[in-house]
Amino acid sequence: MSQSKIQNPKSKIDVSVVVPVFEEEESLPELARQIRASCEAASLDFEVWFIDDGSRDGSWAVIEQIHSDDARFAGLRFRRNYGKSAALAAGFERAEGRYVITMDADLQDDPAEIPALTAMLDDGFDLVSGWKQKRQDPLGKTIPSRFFNFVTRMVSGIKLHDFNCGLKAYRREVVKNIRVYGEMHRYIPLLAKWEGYQRIGEKAVHHRARQFGRTKFGLERYIRGFLDLITVAFLTRFAARPMHFFGMLGTLAFLGGFVISLWITLDKVIFGNPVGDRPLLLLGVLLIVVGVQTFCTGFLADMIIRRRMEETTPYQITQTVEPAVRGEVFEREGERGKGRTGDSNGQ
């Protein structure tokens, strides 16, 4: 049995920790110390990637100092602030550990959870999401977050309490096979499920109050998050078949407009009622136009997707069982045939 190309070779590193950083210079030294202590206590070989997302304070200088003290801590600096999703994507690309842990840089996520999270991956989970069961945040953040998580559970069908928790653990192959962009970091479990990683677990984790600095997120993130949820929900269902979505809407709108127009026409022909001043006429025409445009949108989207599918592989292979070399099979069969022939002649 051989592994396909997407199966990663065994790495000497047990855990890669990816930490997006934005203006957290005060918390970084303590965070590095706690990560080191947690991994060494569990005898885990580790690496840490600090992704400086365009910080304007001294975060990068602190990262350089941490690296000079311990080469297992590495850093990557963005020219400007690109957002958490871009930082995670850069970290995922460079992670070499068998398991990948993500956490925030503000010390609210507890590195002491790393051994327990990796143990759950050892038990067979593809992804384990942290659950801030006792959240140390003001009501202005917890109440909108609960509503956001409720809506996400209903839309995605994934029974997680806290999609937005920064503390998560992944098998290496998971982060190598998903694309995180925009504000999609909130929906990594959904992206992973879409790619076929169904074993998604959850663990209640210790959440701590912020010690340094201030939060970098406001209520607007929930608006952006809701819009991204719509995007992810659409992509997971119709990315490979947009005609099923746009075509259905276009057909319904066209049929509705056609029925209205037919009724008005029959009303004019049979009963002689005027139609020029009836709002229903405008509605019928509008539905027909919208239906045709929506249907054409689906048709064009389907053509684009078909072209993309021709250029890329639309599936992932986890394992293969290779057949025997065909020439060797024929040779063995020929030898067996000769043996039988010789026996019959001898008789």
Secondary structure elements and their pairing?
Blueprint: E1 2-3, E2 15-21, H1 28-41, E3 46-52, H2 59-69, E4 73-77, H3 84-94, E5 99-102, H4 114-122, E6 127-131, H5 139-156, E7 168-171, H6 172-176, H7 188-194, E8 200-204, H8 220-238, H9 242-271, H10 279-311, E9 319-320, H11 326-346
Parallel strand pairs: 2-3, 2-5, 3-4, 6-8
Antiparallel strand pairs: 1-9, 5-7, 6-7
Query: Uncertain spans, ≥5 residues at pLDDT below 50?
Result: 1-9, 336-347
Structural class: alpha/beta
The strands making up the biggest β-sheet line up spatially as: 4-3-2-5-7-6-8
- The CATH homologous superfamily of the largest domain is named Spore Coat Polysaccharide Biosynthesis Protein SpsA, Chain A
The number of helical segments is 11
Give the SSE string.
EEHEHEHEHEHEHHEHHHEH
Number of strands: 9
Domain module count: 2
Mean pLDDT: 81
* Helix content, binned percent: 40-55%
Characterize the biggest β-sheet. Answer: 7 strands, mixed
In short:
By secondary structure, the chain is of the alpha/beta class.
How is this structure best described in words?
It is a single chain. By secondary structure, this protein is of the alpha/beta class. The chain folds into 2 domains: 2-238, Spore Coat Polysaccharide Biosynthesis Protein SpsA, Chain A (Alpha-Beta Complex), CATH 3.90.550; 242-311. Helix content is 51%, strand content 12%. The chain is built from 11 helices and 9 strands. The protein has helices spanning 28-41, 59-69, 84-94, 114-122, 139-156, 172-176, 188-194, 220-238, 242-271, 279-311, 326-346; strands at 2-3, 15-21, 46-52, 73-77, 99-102, 127-131, 168-171, 200-204, 319-320. Strands 4-3-2-5-7-6-8 form a 7-stranded mixed sheet, sandwiched between helices. It has a two-stranded antiparallel ribbon with strand order 1-9. Strand 2 (15-21), helix 1 (28-41) and strand 3 form a beta-alpha-beta unit. Helix 5 runs parallel beside helix 8 (220-238) and helix 9 (242-271) runs antiparallel to helix 10 (279-311). It starts with a strand and ends with a helix. 32% of the residues are buried.
